[in-house]
Amino acid sequence: MSVKQTTPEVTWAQRSSATDAEKNFIYLTIAAPDVKKIDLDLKPTGLTFSGTSETKETTYHLELEFYAEIDPENSKTHHTSRDVLLVLRKKELKEEYWPRLLKESKKAHFLKTDFDKWVDEDEQEGAPVDDMMGGMGGMGGGMPGMEGMAGMGGDGGFGGIDFSKLGGGAGGDMPNLGDMGGGDEDDDDDDEEMPALEEDDDADKTGESKGKAPEKANDAPAANSKIEEVS
After folding, report:
1. Per-residue pLDDT for 159 more than 60?
2. Residue 138 and residue 117: Cα distance in Å, rounded?
3. Closest CA to 60 of 69, 68, 51
4. Of 92, 78, 108, the residue nearest 25 (C-alpha)
5. Mean pLDDT for the stretch of residues 182-198
6. What does DSSP say about strands 38-43 and 70-79: parallel, antiparallel, or unpaired?
7. Is the pLDDT confidence value at 140 over 70?
8. Helix, strand, coil percent values for the chain (each to nearest 5)
């Protein structure tokens, strides 16, 4: 299997501070998908990276020389299945941004601005600081705050919606229909407005002949039979 060598795409952003070292750093992302093992040599003046993807049959190799020095001991690195994430602590506390990432001003075709993380120098105050190692939970054991989503457990992945409050049901007791919208009053009104059916009155008067024979009619034949026996 022949393996080709390529320069990975690199994106970056930065923060700066003259007083707080933890807010004075470089965001750096090296796109190297499906690389199981990496070699990363981080120095104050730059870095060297290499890693091989067997699925893509590619070896990624990168050498960077920074615009200014960094503090490798206080920098952070994390390797995922898609890329290598770094937070590089700037060595010099300074309010101004670095004018560029690399020492040479020549444009590098593989280097791009990470607009998802970038904020302008004069807009840093109040901007969220994305602590790549702590804020992302190590990025190996799942994103923070997603514990309840394992196996769709907890709220079943429905964002904490209480279905018992929707329509009074969907898992709870169904609402009493007699209590909805003054239903009793409407029923009373309907009963009062219903016209009397004259046919029902007639049926009541003649109901005995239609439903069953009158008792007197049944008694008459019995009396006649006794008279005939006597005679």
Report:
1. no
2. 18
3. 51
4. 92
5. 47
6. unpaired
7. no
8. 25, 25, 45
3-state secondary structure of 144: coil
User: Minimum mean pLDDT among 88-102, 109-123, 142-156: which range?
Assistant: 142-156
Give me the pLDDT at residue 1, please: 58
Q: From CA 101, how far away is CA 65, in angstroms rounded?
A: 8
Query: Where are any strands of DSSP class E within 4-69?
Result: 4-6, 10-15, 25-31, 38-43, 46-53, 58-65
65: closest CA among 42, 94, 87?
A: 42
161 Cβ partners below 8 Å, 6+ apart?
155
Q: Can you read off the two tokens belonging to residue 85?
A: 């994430």
pLDDT on residue 7: 97
Phi-psi region of 7 (alpha: psi -120 to 50; beta: other; left: phi over 0): beta
The whole-number pLDDT of residue 162 equals 40
- Under the phi-then-psi rule, with left for phi > 0, alpha for psi from -120 to 50, and beta for the rest, what region is 221? alpha
> Average model confidence (pLDDT) for the chain?
71
